[in-house]
Structure to design on (271 residues):
């Protein structure tokens, strides 16, 4: 009787997983790492210079890195350390995005646009990553204006909004972004997360997830599989945590960084 019950439970679980994948059909597309690269580019210290490891990994998987010199672009050209680090990433083929916070659509548009201008003038990057992005329809006009402002610049092509949570579909249909971060949270919340139905109506390239406090490589791989089933192309998973002393989950690479790169590469090779 116990064996029969166990068999039935296993069959139901398998059917549930299959139904999940069928509900959110996966595009035949390459997974990409979207990494908040908020560590300082210590090129002069090989033991702490994580940027070179990111650059090296770009030979295996597509990588988009978000750089954040000083809660934004600072006041002008990058210092020599950032200039060196950006050059290393650029030569490796990493797509570069500049960090700009928007205070959930409350920050003055002129201030935001001035930071976009600084990135465009001095940093030789590919696009903008808007943090603290609003998720409700009431702020669509605000972000659409920024989207159009960026798209009018010949050197900037990519706009990512980091809502980090459930987001109104209008941000894609307007559009107000090329990619939206629909999840930024602790690892356990990822398993309970319920994707909105519109994920199956848009390409995987429009969705990203950033998952921190993931304890080990086995769990990391499991969560990547879940992201694939949910039709998400851009992702990053780390064991760094806001519960650590520095309170920043994005200022170091995960201890299983190379395993993460290898696993994503293995998935991409099957596409």
């Amino acid at each position: 009787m116990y064996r029969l019950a166990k068999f039935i439970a296993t069959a139901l679980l398998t059917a549930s997983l299959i139904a999940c994948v069928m509900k959110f059909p996966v595009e035949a597309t390459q997974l990409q790492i979207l990494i908040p690269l908020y560590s300082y580019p210590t090129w002069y210290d090989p033991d702490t210079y994580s940027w070179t490891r990111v650059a090296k990994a770009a030979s295996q998987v597509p990588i988009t890195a978000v750089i954040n010199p000083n809660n934004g672009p600072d006041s002008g050209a990058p210092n020599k350390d950032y200039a060196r680090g950006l050059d290393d990433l650029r030569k490796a083929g990493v797509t570069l995005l500049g960090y700009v916070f928007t205070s959930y659509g409350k920050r003055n548009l002129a201030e935001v646009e001035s930071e976009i201008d600084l990135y465009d003038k001095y940093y030789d990057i590919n696009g903008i990553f808007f943090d603290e992005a609003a998720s409700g329809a009431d702020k669509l006009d605000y972000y659409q204006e920024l989207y159009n402002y960026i798209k009018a610049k010949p050197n900037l092509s990519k706009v990512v909004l980091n809502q980090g949570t459930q987001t109104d579909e209008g941000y894609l249909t307007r559009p107000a972004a090329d990619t939206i971060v629909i999840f930024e949270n602790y690892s356990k919340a990822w398993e309970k997360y319920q994707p909105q139905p519109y994920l199956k109506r848009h390409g995987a390239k429009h969705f990203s997830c950033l998952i921190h406090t993931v304890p080990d490589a086995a769990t990391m791989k499991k969560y990547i599989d879940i992201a694939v089933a949910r039709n998400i192309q851009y992702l990053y998973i780390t064991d760094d945590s806001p519960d650590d002393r520095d309170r920043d989950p994005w200022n170091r690479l995960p201890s299983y960084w190379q395993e993460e790169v290898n696993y994503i590469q293995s998935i991409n090779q099957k596409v």
In short: The two ends are 42 Å apart (CA to CA). The domain at 2-268 is CATH 3.20.20.80 (TIM Barrel).
